[in-house]
Amino acid sequence: MAHHLLPLLAVLAAAALLVAPVAGYPWPVCGQSNYFKPNGTYEAHLDLVAAKLPKNASASRSLFATTVVGTIPEQLWAMGLCRGDVNATACFSCLTQAFRDLPNDCSYDMDATIYYDQCILHYSDVLTFPGADTGPTTDTYTINFNANVTSDPAQFKSLLAALINATVAYAANNSTRLFATGEADFNQEFPKVYSLAQCTPDQTPAHCRNCLAEAVAGHQGSFYDYIGGRVLGINCSYRYEIVPFFNGPAMVRLASPISGAPAPAPAPAPASALQPTVGTPPAAGKGGRKRGIPVVIVAVLLPSIAALNLVACLCYWKRQRPIEQAKQKYPMYSAEAEDTETVDSMMMDVSTLRAATGDFDETNKLGEGGFGAVYKVWEHWETGTVVELVDPNMGGSSIPEADVLRCIHIGLLCVQGDPTARPVMSSVVVMLGSNTVTLQAPSKPAFCFRNNSNTTVSTAPLQG
């Protein structure tokens, strides 16, 4: 029986070597700007916050808490955030330990931060808030593993970029806690890649998206060749590894076909190669932190682009077909349109208006009825009759109803009245390519809707 245990022991030993060493924690970042006096007012404030903040954060549904004590120049602002997948007990223990360690690691520093695997603690004499523009940059702390990806490194980079962008998009747009986890299939050397992204819950989705985009843009070339890496920031963080490190199932799943011939079993990596390499954090300025407004990075795969182009062509064909039918049915109106193409009537010809309004039906009169494709879709969505929107000539009952509902659901999310609630393109790509991503309920579209008496037309700019 012993010979049956040898393969199992070998697998367990290899897995143990891949796990990030706990000895790497914690990672302190000292401000080195202002210092407080021993046994003074600031230290008393720190002791007071240490007794309250871990309890408040662990009792919060978002595992997050902030507090302000005292007045300038002895004012102390503190923030504690636990990883979104840990429980309250682990959160309390982590933040309690952080308050023990940080004052020793950053002795008498008024501005200090410490990062653990499961929590972050930050305190400062400068009060910051979501969207504040009070500093030169978002301070980040980079960590990567020395071991490189040797099998299909180019494909690994591409997959990792898609996974990180999808996880970031889900955290910012589809999670009330601004937290998301993800996983993707790779190859036989590394079957799975895991990711995590998180922002402090006091931010808006737009601020979270910008913070994470800045972190991704600033570090994507730093460690995409490695088997693991992290960018740790006070306002937002993201991370990836080739072994599972979060609790529960992944919120975002990307499938990637395993390409090429079966790869040989990799030799166990030396322990030194798996030690995390810690990047040098920028020196903290006195001005605090900035939640920047960078460009959102979009990773779009070619199949998704092809699918979107196909949908656009089908929509264009469907829109043109009734117009051509109307011109054949009402040739006189087509002639009228050619005669009346003046400066005042160049937008639409009469035959187009006739086709669009159902032969000028009173129920489609603007201001009294549901004129407009978006309104009609929303009306069917509310009544549960979305399938009736499908053109019978496109397949009828042969089209899976679930696919129809999902496509229309995504379309309604993209035209919601609040521009900040609309998903970015990277999120749309993930939604179209995966059935495992949960979609939020859409709100009313911005273009036209009505109340019980009169129609109210509302417009809002589309997000680019």
From TrEMBL:
Residues in Gnk2-homologous domain copies: 24-128, 138-245
Keywords for this protein: Membrane, Repeat, Signal, Transmembrane, Transmembrane helix
Lineage, broadest ranks: Eukaryota, Viridiplantae, Streptophyta, Embryophyta, Tracheophyta
Protein name from the UniProt record: Gnk2-homologous domain-containing protein
Chain spans, region Disordered: 265-289
Signal peptide extent: 1-24
Transmembrane segments: 295-317
Entry superkingdom: Eukaryota
Organism of this sequence: Miscanthus lutarioriparius
